[in-house]
Amino acid sequence: MSSEVAPVIAFLGAGNMASAMISGLIAQGTSPNQLRASDPSEAALAGLEALGLTQLGTSPDGLFDGADLVVAAVKPQIIPAALTAISDQLGADTALLSIAAGIPINSLQAHAGEDVAIIRCMPNTPAMIGLGASALYAPDSVSPAHRNLAERVTNAAGKTVWVASEDLLDAVTAVSGSGPAYFFALIEAIAQAGTELGLEEDVAMALTVQTALGAASLAAQATEPVATLRENVTSPGGTTEQALQSLQTSEFDAVVAEAVRQCAARAKALGEEFG
Asked: Which of 14, 143, 154, 230 could connect to 160 by a Cys-Cys bridge, CB 3.0–4.6 Å?
Protein backbone atom coordinates (compact mmCIF):
# COMPACT_ATOMS: atom_id res chain seq x y z
CA MET A 1 0.00 0.00 0.00
CA SER A 2 1.53 3.29 -1.07
CA SER A 3 1.51 6.16 1.42
CA GLU A 4 1.46 8.61 -1.50
CA VAL A 5 -1.95 7.49 -2.75
CA ALA A 6 -5.12 8.04 -0.74
CA PRO A 7 -6.11 4.59 0.57
CA VAL A 8 -9.37 2.96 -0.47
CA ILE A 9 -11.53 1.51 2.30
CA ALA A 10 -14.37 -0.80 1.27
CA PHE A 11 -17.10 -1.91 3.65
CA LEU A 12 -18.70 -5.32 3.37
CA GLY A 13 -21.99 -4.46 5.04
CA ALA A 14 -23.48 -1.03 5.64
CA GLY A 15 -25.30 -1.45 8.94
CA ASN A 16 -25.15 0.77 11.99
CA MET A 17 -21.52 0.03 12.88
CA ALA A 18 -20.25 0.50 9.33
CA SER A 19 -22.27 3.69 8.93
CA ALA A 20 -20.83 5.05 12.18
CA MET A 21 -17.29 4.35 11.03
CA ILE A 22 -17.92 5.89 7.62
CA SER A 23 -19.48 9.00 9.15
CA GLY A 24 -16.53 9.33 11.50
CA LEU A 25 -14.00 8.91 8.73
CA ILE A 26 -15.64 11.62 6.64
CA ALA A 27 -15.83 13.92 9.66
CA GLN A 28 -12.09 13.43 10.16
CA GLY A 29 -11.28 14.34 6.58
CA THR A 30 -11.48 11.15 4.54
CA SER A 31 -12.94 11.84 1.11
CA PRO A 32 -16.13 9.92 0.28
CA ASN A 33 -14.35 9.01 -2.97
CA GLN A 34 -12.02 6.81 -0.91
CA LEU A 35 -14.92 4.86 0.54
CA ARG A 36 -17.00 2.06 -0.93
CA ALA A 37 -19.72 -0.18 0.46
CA SER A 38 -21.78 -3.20 -0.44
CA ASP A 39 -25.01 -4.19 1.29
CA PRO A 40 -28.20 -5.93 0.14
CA SER A 41 -30.26 -3.17 1.79
CA GLU A 42 -30.94 -0.29 -0.56
CA ALA A 43 -32.07 1.80 2.43
CA ALA A 44 -28.68 1.36 4.12
CA LEU A 45 -26.89 2.34 0.91
CA ALA A 46 -29.14 5.37 0.51
CA GLY A 47 -27.92 6.60 3.90
CA LEU A 48 -24.32 6.34 2.71
CA GLU A 49 -25.15 8.02 -0.57
CA ALA A 50 -26.44 10.95 1.47
CA LEU A 51 -22.96 11.14 3.02
CA GLY A 52 -21.41 11.54 -0.43
CA LEU A 53 -20.41 7.98 -1.28
CA THR A 54 -20.83 7.06 -4.94
CA GLN A 55 -19.25 3.60 -5.09
CA LEU A 56 -22.09 1.58 -3.63
CA GLY A 57 -23.90 -1.59 -4.60
CA THR A 58 -26.29 -4.28 -3.44
CA SER A 59 -23.89 -6.71 -5.12
CA PRO A 60 -20.20 -6.81 -4.11
CA ASP A 61 -19.06 -7.35 -7.69
CA GLY A 62 -16.07 -5.12 -8.42
CA LEU A 63 -16.43 -2.97 -5.32
CA PHE A 64 -13.49 -4.56 -3.52
CA ASP A 65 -10.99 -4.59 -6.37
CA GLY A 66 -7.96 -2.51 -5.41
CA ALA A 67 -9.17 -1.79 -1.87
CA ASP A 68 -6.39 -1.25 0.67
CA LEU A 69 -8.65 -2.23 3.55
CA VAL A 70 -11.87 -4.25 3.54
CA VAL A 71 -14.00 -3.87 6.66
CA ALA A 72 -16.12 -6.97 7.21
CA ALA A 73 -19.13 -5.55 9.02
CA VAL A 74 -21.65 -8.35 8.61
CA LYS A 75 -23.07 -10.83 11.10
CA PRO A 76 -20.79 -13.74 12.03
CA GLN A 77 -23.05 -16.35 10.46
CA ILE A 78 -22.82 -14.53 7.12
CA ILE A 79 -19.04 -14.16 7.13
CA PRO A 80 -18.12 -17.42 5.33
CA ALA A 81 -20.37 -16.81 2.34
CA ALA A 82 -19.72 -13.05 2.24
CA LEU A 83 -15.93 -13.41 2.20
CA THR A 84 -15.98 -16.28 -0.26
CA ALA A 85 -18.03 -14.09 -2.63
CA ILE A 86 -15.32 -11.40 -2.74
CA SER A 87 -12.19 -13.52 -2.28
CA ASP A 88 -11.29 -13.22 -5.96
CA GLN A 89 -11.08 -9.44 -5.50
CA LEU A 90 -8.66 -9.63 -2.56
CA GLY A 91 -4.91 -10.09 -2.60
CA ALA A 92 -1.62 -9.41 -0.89
CA ASP A 93 -2.10 -5.64 -1.02
CA THR A 94 -5.42 -5.86 0.83
CA ALA A 95 -6.02 -6.15 4.55
CA LEU A 96 -9.26 -7.43 6.05
CA LEU A 97 -10.54 -5.78 9.23
CA SER A 98 -13.19 -8.06 10.71
CA ILE A 99 -15.63 -6.81 13.33
CA ALA A 100 -17.55 -10.09 13.30
CA ALA A 101 -17.53 -11.39 16.86
CA GLY A 102 -16.09 -14.82 17.46
CA ILE A 103 -14.70 -15.58 13.99
CA PRO A 104 -11.01 -16.49 14.48
CA ILE A 105 -8.26 -15.45 12.12
CA ASN A 106 -7.68 -18.95 10.76
CA SER A 107 -11.31 -19.15 9.68
CA LEU A 108 -11.27 -15.64 8.18
CA GLN A 109 -8.09 -16.54 6.31
CA ALA A 110 -9.64 -19.67 4.88
CA HIS A 111 -12.53 -17.71 3.36
CA ALA A 112 -10.70 -14.52 2.35
CA GLY A 113 -7.57 -16.10 0.91
CA GLU A 114 -4.12 -16.95 2.22
CA ASP A 115 -2.51 -13.77 0.88
CA VAL A 116 -4.87 -11.38 2.67
CA ALA A 117 -3.63 -9.70 5.86
CA ILE A 118 -6.17 -10.24 8.65
CA ILE A 119 -6.92 -7.87 11.53
CA ARG A 120 -9.61 -8.62 14.09
CA CYS A 121 -11.59 -5.97 15.92
CA MET A 122 -13.94 -6.10 18.89
CA PRO A 123 -15.93 -2.84 18.94
CA ASN A 124 -18.97 -1.94 21.03
CA THR A 125 -22.26 -0.22 20.35
CA PRO A 126 -21.34 3.29 21.60
CA ALA A 127 -19.29 3.46 18.39
CA MET A 128 -22.60 4.40 16.77
CA ILE A 129 -22.34 7.81 18.47
CA GLY A 130 -18.58 8.14 18.14
CA LEU A 131 -17.87 6.94 21.68
CA GLY A 132 -16.92 3.37 20.99
CA ALA A 133 -14.19 1.29 22.56
CA SER A 134 -12.46 -0.98 20.03
CA ALA A 135 -9.67 -3.48 20.55
CA LEU A 136 -7.58 -4.66 17.60
CA TYR A 137 -5.34 -7.67 17.13
CA ALA A 138 -3.13 -8.46 14.15
CA PRO A 139 -0.44 -11.10 13.61
CA ASP A 140 3.14 -9.91 13.29
CA SER A 141 2.94 -10.43 9.53
CA VAL A 142 0.49 -7.52 9.10
CA SER A 143 2.28 -4.38 7.90
CA PRO A 144 2.42 -1.12 9.88
CA ALA A 145 0.58 0.61 7.03
CA HIS A 146 -2.35 -1.79 7.26
CA ARG A 147 -2.35 -1.55 11.06
CA ASN A 148 -2.45 2.24 10.88
CA LEU A 149 -5.29 2.16 8.37
CA ALA A 150 -7.33 -0.20 10.55
CA GLU A 151 -6.74 2.03 13.57
CA ARG A 152 -7.81 5.05 11.54
CA VAL A 153 -11.16 3.36 10.92
CA THR A 154 -11.78 2.41 14.54
CA ASN A 155 -10.55 5.76 15.87
CA ALA A 156 -13.21 7.38 13.71
CA ALA A 157 -15.80 5.77 15.98
CA GLY A 158 -14.12 6.23 19.36
CA LYS A 159 -11.03 4.95 21.19
CA THR A 160 -8.77 2.13 20.00
CA VAL A 161 -6.41 -0.17 21.87
CA TRP A 162 -4.30 -3.08 20.62
CA VAL A 163 -4.00 -6.43 22.37
CA ALA A 164 -1.00 -8.74 22.21
CA SER A 165 -2.74 -12.01 21.37
CA GLU A 166 -5.94 -13.11 19.66
CA ASP A 167 -7.26 -14.97 22.68
CA LEU A 168 -7.32 -11.69 24.64
CA LEU A 169 -10.24 -10.60 22.45
CA ASP A 170 -12.40 -12.85 24.64
CA ALA A 171 -11.45 -10.68 27.62
CA VAL A 172 -12.14 -7.58 25.53
CA THR A 173 -15.59 -8.95 24.71
CA ALA A 174 -16.25 -9.42 28.41
CA VAL A 175 -15.01 -5.96 29.42
CA SER A 176 -16.05 -3.61 26.61
CA GLY A 177 -17.83 -5.58 23.90
CA SER A 178 -20.62 -6.64 26.24
CA GLY A 179 -19.78 -3.94 28.78
CA PRO A 180 -22.43 -1.39 27.74
CA ALA A 181 -25.14 -3.86 28.79
CA TYR A 182 -23.70 -4.01 32.32
CA PHE A 183 -23.92 -0.24 32.64
CA PHE A 184 -27.42 -0.19 31.18
CA ALA A 185 -28.46 -2.79 33.77
CA LEU A 186 -26.93 -0.66 36.55
CA ILE A 187 -28.73 2.43 35.27
CA GLU A 188 -32.01 0.53 35.25
CA ALA A 189 -31.46 -0.73 38.80
CA ILE A 190 -30.54 2.67 40.25
CA ALA A 191 -33.42 4.42 38.50
CA GLN A 192 -35.85 1.76 39.71
CA ALA A 193 -34.60 2.21 43.27
CA GLY A 194 -35.13 5.95 42.88
CA THR A 195 -38.76 5.44 41.88
CA GLU A 196 -39.26 3.16 44.89
CA LEU A 197 -38.03 6.04 47.04
CA GLY A 198 -40.72 8.28 45.58
CA LEU A 199 -39.17 9.93 42.50
CA GLU A 200 -41.11 10.10 39.26
CA GLU A 201 -39.81 7.57 36.74
CA ASP A 202 -38.58 10.17 34.27
CA VAL A 203 -36.87 12.16 37.03
CA ALA A 204 -35.14 9.08 38.42
CA MET A 205 -33.96 8.02 34.97
CA ALA A 206 -32.76 11.52 34.03
CA LEU A 207 -30.75 11.84 37.24
CA THR A 208 -29.28 8.36 36.86
CA VAL A 209 -28.28 8.74 33.21
CA GLN A 210 -26.70 12.15 33.80
CA THR A 211 -24.83 10.84 36.83
CA ALA A 212 -23.50 7.91 34.80
CA LEU A 213 -22.45 10.27 32.02
CA GLY A 214 -20.77 12.64 34.46
CA ALA A 215 -18.96 9.89 36.34
CA ALA A 216 -17.65 8.31 33.13
CA SER A 217 -16.55 11.68 31.76
CA LEU A 218 -14.82 12.55 35.01
CA ALA A 219 -13.02 9.19 35.01
CA ALA A 220 -11.93 9.73 31.40
CA GLN A 221 -10.54 13.21 32.08
CA ALA A 222 -9.04 12.70 35.53
CA THR A 223 -5.32 12.26 36.08
CA GLU A 224 -5.80 10.30 39.30
CA PRO A 225 -6.97 6.67 39.50
CA VAL A 226 -10.69 5.86 39.54
CA ALA A 227 -10.24 4.54 43.08
CA THR A 228 -9.19 8.04 44.16
CA LEU A 229 -12.29 9.53 42.52
CA ARG A 230 -14.40 7.09 44.49
CA GLU A 231 -12.62 7.97 47.72
CA ASN A 232 -13.10 11.69 47.03
CA VAL A 233 -16.89 11.35 47.17
CA THR A 234 -16.90 8.95 50.13
CA SER A 235 -16.90 10.95 53.36
CA PRO A 236 -16.33 8.90 56.53
CA GLY A 237 -19.67 8.16 58.15
CA GLY A 238 -21.55 9.72 55.25
CA THR A 239 -24.25 8.60 52.84
CA THR A 240 -21.93 7.35 50.09
CA GLU A 241 -19.93 5.27 52.55
CA GLN A 242 -23.15 3.65 53.74
CA ALA A 243 -24.13 2.77 50.18
CA LEU A 244 -20.70 1.35 49.34
CA GLN A 245 -20.67 -0.73 52.53
CA SER A 246 -23.98 -2.22 51.42
CA LEU A 247 -22.47 -3.12 48.05
CA GLN A 248 -19.49 -4.73 49.76
CA THR A 249 -21.76 -6.75 52.04
CA SER A 250 -23.56 -8.01 48.95
CA GLU A 251 -20.19 -8.93 47.40
CA PHE A 252 -20.69 -6.49 44.54
CA ASP A 253 -17.12 -6.88 43.24
CA ALA A 254 -17.41 -10.67 43.18
CA VAL A 255 -20.77 -10.56 41.38
CA VAL A 256 -19.38 -8.24 38.69
CA ALA A 257 -16.19 -10.28 38.31
CA GLU A 258 -18.16 -13.49 37.87
CA ALA A 259 -20.39 -11.88 35.23
CA VAL A 260 -17.32 -10.74 33.28
CA ARG A 261 -15.72 -14.20 33.58
CA GLN A 262 -18.90 -15.89 32.35
CA CYS A 263 -19.01 -13.53 29.38
CA ALA A 264 -15.39 -14.28 28.48
CA ALA A 265 -16.01 -18.02 28.74
CA ARG A 266 -19.01 -17.77 26.43
CA ALA A 267 -17.00 -15.68 23.95
CA LYS A 268 -14.29 -18.34 23.93
CA ALA A 269 -16.84 -21.10 23.40
CA LEU A 270 -18.46 -19.26 20.51
CA GLY A 271 -15.06 -18.67 18.94
CA GLU A 272 -14.30 -22.38 19.13
CA GLU A 273 -17.66 -23.16 17.50
CA PHE A 274 -16.99 -20.74 14.64
CA GLY A 275 -13.41 -21.94 14.32
From this structure: 154
For 177-271, CATH gives 1.10.3730.10
pLDDT digits (tens), the chain, 275 positions: 544 579 999 999 999 999 999 999 999 999 999 999 999 999 999 999 999 999 999 999 999 999 999 999 999 999 999 999 999 999 999 999 999 988 999 999 999 999 999 999 999 999 999 999 999 999 999 999 999 999 999 999 999 999 999 999 999 999 999 999 999 999 999 999 999 999 999 999 999 999 999 999 999 999 999 999 999 999 999 999 999 999 999 999 999 999 999 999 999 998 888 76
Residue 141: its H or E element: none
> Other C-beta atoms within 10 Å of 164: how many?
7
Q: What CA–CA distance (Å, rounded) separates 7 from 146? A: 10
Are 184 and 213 contacting, i.e. CB atoms less than 8 angstroms apart? no
pTM for this predicted structure: 0.91
Q: How far is CA 166 from the centre of its chain?
A: 15
